[in-house]
Design the sequence.
């Protein structure tokens, strides 16, 4: 067993990032890219692991993107653990950590916004109207900076994955988008950097979300009316102890169009609910 | 002198375009890109000529982009001369003509818009509020499709050139943007595909625009108040025979910010005016 410490290249500017990636491409070596906001957990490391199967080299970015937070949200307190993250990435076999500053990403004079409809309509947008504009601009920038062959995103943020897939197709960004199944703890809770905000009692409640969604998905597949399943699942989450429920929704799995009844193509059930001041999201196939 | 007919490759899909460009890049040969709406005139051919100085290969696109026309504008009647254009491009030394269809560019489900401020504020936007959103989306797509090393745009559409330069920086599109000085006829009229709409009498009037701008630029450089120069130049154009004047404006040449007085860095004077149902624009350094 080789005990040598794995090495991790670092870049803080698009020029440095591109120089390394161009070198790999010049040697006909493929590159996979995993954009993150840091505070890495096993879900992120699963993305890096999958990235190693997709390409010869793996680049991970860590950037807590201010444009996807509203003024009242947790930009200031979002967990930042850069050196710990770097160690985890090196151990996971990531080749390069790209960590630009906010002023590198959004210099004075920045003048461009991206607005999405289609899969960005409803769900998260009803509750975080700024969110996908912020995601779209940062992902467009990061993908164009990295020039990777493939980029991986978790299915945990399922609407985000659909929005990014649409964005990349619409802007003709030459990077293939791959969604990776959600990593869960032993009791099915979707891993999230925001789980760090939860007390033990809140974690017990949070762990009921995935079971409620699995039961709802089974009911939808069995032909129960979608409206009833959505409403009853939301009510059950309140009984479980969630403070409030932003949505429980069954959608076309690709377009995220609302469904009046079950369809003979992939469906997805998505939910967002609050525990104290923490907002959790989860989803699964239906 | 070699009399063999020059050959011109053709592509209609992003995949075909990228295959050719990737082949050139694999051979370490650089690529320059000239996006156009066709109806080519000597101004476009000057762009191709300059492109040949910038890179080993030249790609020209012809696409009359519907998203940059408002409903009442001339999308339906915009001149389309594809086979004549192809002959001109081959003679000018262009290597590849890329002519996608509207449904290739904007397939069903297209869901992305780009909104610009900064250099997009005012001037054209005051009169064509849809215009730069349409330009931004099509240019982002075309540049990402072509993956060229450099792309060339005419200074005739000066505000557009500044908007595209900003867009490409903001989205980190890996293509260098080069502006090319406006090509003019023997009497100084800026070449434009829309000049084809003008009668002989209108052409006589149109040819006075560049002289008025040159005189205005000289006055600004000499220290005359900018407000007065703008107003008096607009009034002179009406006397010359223009039906109406959308704007005559002196701006910072890079940011296009309005100026209260002359500054010690590059300035630009820009104008838009109508002759019958035809709208002409022009600009020059001040």
Sequence:
């Amino acid at each position: 067993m080789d005990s040598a410490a794995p090495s991790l290249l670092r870049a803080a500017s698009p020029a440095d990032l591109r120089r390394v990636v161009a070198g790999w491409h010049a040697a006909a070596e493929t590159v996979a890219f995993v954009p993150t906001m840091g505070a890495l957990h096993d879900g992120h490391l699963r993305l890096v692991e999958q990235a190693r199967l997709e390409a010869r080299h793996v680049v991970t970015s860590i950037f807590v993107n201010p444009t996807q937070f509203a003024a009242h949200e947790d930009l200031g307190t979002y967990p930042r653990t850069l050196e710990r993250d770097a160690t985890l990435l090196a151990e996971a076999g990531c080749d390069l950590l790209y960590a630009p500053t906010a002023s590198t990403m959004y210099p004075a004079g920045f003048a461009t916004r991206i607005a999405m409809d289609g899969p960005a309509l409803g769900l998260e947008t009803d509750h975080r109207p700024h969110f996908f504009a912020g995601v779209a601009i940062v992902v467009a920038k990061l993908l164009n900076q990295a020039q990777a062959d493939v980029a991986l995103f978790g299915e945990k943020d399922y609407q985000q994955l659909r929005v990014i897939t649409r964005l990349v197709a619409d802007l003709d960004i030459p990077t293939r988008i791959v969604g990776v199944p959600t990593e869960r703890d032993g009791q099915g809770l979707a891993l999230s950097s925001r789980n760090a905000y939860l007390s033990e009692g809140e974690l017990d409640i949070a762990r009921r979300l995935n079971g409620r969604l699995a039961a709802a998905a089974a009911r939808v597949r069995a032909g129960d009316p979608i409206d009833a399943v959505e409403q009853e699942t939301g009510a059950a989450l309140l009984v479980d102890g969630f403070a409030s429920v932003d949505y429980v929704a069954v959608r076309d799995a690709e377009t995220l169009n609302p469904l009046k009844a079950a369809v003979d193509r992939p469906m997805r059930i998505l939910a967002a609910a609050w525990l104290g001041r923490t907002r959790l999201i989860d989803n699964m196939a239906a």
In short: The longest strand of chain A covers residues 244-252.
